[in-house]
Amino acid sequence: MQKILRIDSNDNLIVALKDLHAGESFSWDDDNITLVTDVKAKHKFATQDIPLDGIVSMYGTPVGKATRPIVKGEAITVDNIRHYAAPVTLEDVEPYHWQAPDVSEWSTRTFKGYVRDDGRVGTASYWLVFPLVFCENRNVSKLTNALNDALGYTNNSLKKFALNLTSGSDELIETARMFPHIEGVRCITVTSGCGGATSDCETMCDVLAAYADHPNVIGMTVFSLGCEKAQQKMFKDALARRNPEFDKPALYFLQQEWDSEERMMQTALQQTFEAMKAVKPTERVEVPLSCLKVGMKCGGSDGFSGISGNPAMGLVSDWLTTLGGASGLAEFPELCGAEGDMVKRCINLEDKKKFLNLMQGYEKTANFFDTTIADNPSFGNIADGLITDAIKSTGA
């Protein structure tokens, strides 16, 4: 089994693929390296002597600076390096020449999706329940749980175990789905909608409108209190801006118009049930990969994700976009230290500016609270070899 890996020829760090011990020697690129410390799997060691404030490189880019001299064969830790990323300006960014990969192997591949009336394709069919203010989070959860339980969508193994236990039966209790063409009821809860800046409420409404308009959503039930800043009109305006032709079933409940919360909830449940029942059954059909859009987010980074799952998803993203599909990257604060690589991949100058402004805005906000977005790696990240935020980000 291979024990070590250097990712880029310019790196002065090597990844341990298994636990290594002081005294072990390795040959790499006509160089011999003898470990002077133990190195745990997923962690890294220096390929050369690195002076105080010397640049530590991985993935072909700076990921830290030495806080004391590091000797060749020594493991890097929080005690000998700190976060560092090369400054990025638009003037310094070299043009990125992307080479489209050969996708002929998948050019005729298809997947089964739901073709919507507007031509977009969904991979699921959900009824969405959400509030316009945090005061309604409880009602959103109550309605969602009640519908999922009654309609056979609940997939809570512990709850099923409890039901079996209390019934005295050895047979697993299952509830058949009433609407096989609908895959469940999903809820979104919020932390804003009132007691803050109007711009925050508008941003929240824009996000909720994007969810509502998503091709995986077939209808929605919306709760508001009545006195909140994020009024129903604000949300409806956001939805109209996003899609002037929006015509999915939408139910709105304003609690202060009701004399009883119980009656409102019963009515909301009844009307949502009737609306779901009225949804025209849609069958999955074979569609080309050009119709597929995938979203990516952090999956729990460790010292191997940067040499396994993450580059695999990057390769799949290149394949998919070449085929005409799309791949979306979220969690921009987790790209601290990878700004240079990200800016290179932006085609348009405006996108480069937007990304840098976004990252600088996050950092400025963090600085206001006497911290930095580089203070991101968790205890588990560090224990698994992600010593600096730049190592974590560039591996993502």
From TrEMBL:
Lineage, uppermost ranks: Bacteria, Pseudomonadati, Pseudomonadota, Gammaproteobacteria, Enterobacterales
Name assigned to this protein: Altronate dehydratase
Record domain SAF: where: 11-82
Organism, scientific name: Escherichia coli
Domain of life the protein comes from: Bacteria
GO molecular function list: lyase activity
Assigned keywords, A-Z: Lyase
Annotated family: Belongs to the UxaA family.
Lyase in keyword set: yes
